Structure formats: C-alpha cells, structure tokens
Amino acid sequence: MIGGYPKLTEEDAALVDVLGPLDKNQPDQLKQFIAALKSASFFIYPTTGDTYSMPTLEAMAFGCPPLVSDYGAVPELVADNITGFILPVTASGLDYATKIQALLAVPGAYNDMCRAAYARYESTHRWDKQCLEVVAFMKRRIAETEAQAHRT
Q1: Could you tell me which residues come within 8 angstroms of residue 89 by beta carbon, excluding any fewer than 6 positions away?
Q2: DSSP letters of 54-118?
Q3: Pairing with 31, which of 55, 76, 147, 150 sits 20 to 30 Å away (CA)?
Q4: Which pTM value belongs to this model?
C-alpha cells in the first residue's frame, strides 16, 4: 500500500506491504515506488475524491490492472473488463475481491488484462502524446481564429 498508513489487524498486516507516502522526487523513494508497481498484481483505487487519477495511469504504465471506483473522471481511464474494472463507489472490499477472483479463474485473462492496461496507457495516456494532442488542438484553434479574422 502506497500513500497512507491504514489501521490493519495483525492478520491483514501480514498480507499487505505498507510503504506509506512516497516522494517520487527522492531517488530512493522513487525506486521503492517503481519496485512496488512492478511487483503489484492489481492496483485497487476505490477513490471518492479524485477527479483525474494519476495513480491509476502510473499503475497502467507498469501493466498493473486497476480496479477503480466510478467516481469523477477516473472511469474514463479504464476500459471496464478490458484494462481493469470499474466498480460503484459504494462497492465493498468483497466486491473488489470477487472481481479479482473471477478474473483469475479464467486462464490467460489476467495476462491479457495486464497487456491491455499497458497498451491503453501507451496509446492514449502518455504525457508526450497528450502534449502533442494539446499542441495540435491549439494550432487548429489559432488557424480557425486567423481564418475567421480574415473573413471579417
């Protein structure tokens, strides 16, 4: 778990690595962050307050399928049942576990989802591609504005 210090029972604490908040600007903490995502099987993010989820994209960049809530713009990042799962914001821990269990019961489905999560990040959500799209949009708008100015 990255980003907090939950109250866990002794039994749960034996199953969860709690790293707490990590500052990715610090080289040693960045290494911890990368190692955690490389070794993670799933990224579980039942947010009720995030409007655009950089953590979800970071997980997908490592081929880690996200399970997210249907809050804000977070569902826009995940293709439900293809690159990860979108659950109602009211979903319980059992609901998340049931999704994982069902996926793992189908041979090859988990690996397919990992590949799809990474492919969606690469094709749609990389910063360099996003920046190029913004620049192209701005150029179109400038050209349209200039063309309109010449007509008047």
Answers
A1: 46, 48, 69, 70, 71
A2: HHHHHHHHTT--EEEES-TTGGGG--BTTTBEEE-TT--HHHHHHHHHHHHTSTTHHHHHHHHHH
A3: 76
A4: 0.79
Task: Please list the helix, strand and coil fractions of the chain in percent, rounded to the nearest 5, in that order.
Answer: 55, 10, 35
> Bridge-partner residues for 69, per DSSP?
87
Per the listing, tokens 């081929």 go with 63
> Residue 114: how many CA atoms within 13 Å on its side-chain side?
15
Residue 149 corresponds to which tokens in the numbers above? 């100015």
The letter for the amino acid at 48 is T
Contact 57, 115 (CB under 8 A): no
The pLDDT tens digits of the residues spanning 18-73 come to 999 999 999 999 999 999 999 999 999 998 887 778 899 999 999 999 999 999 88
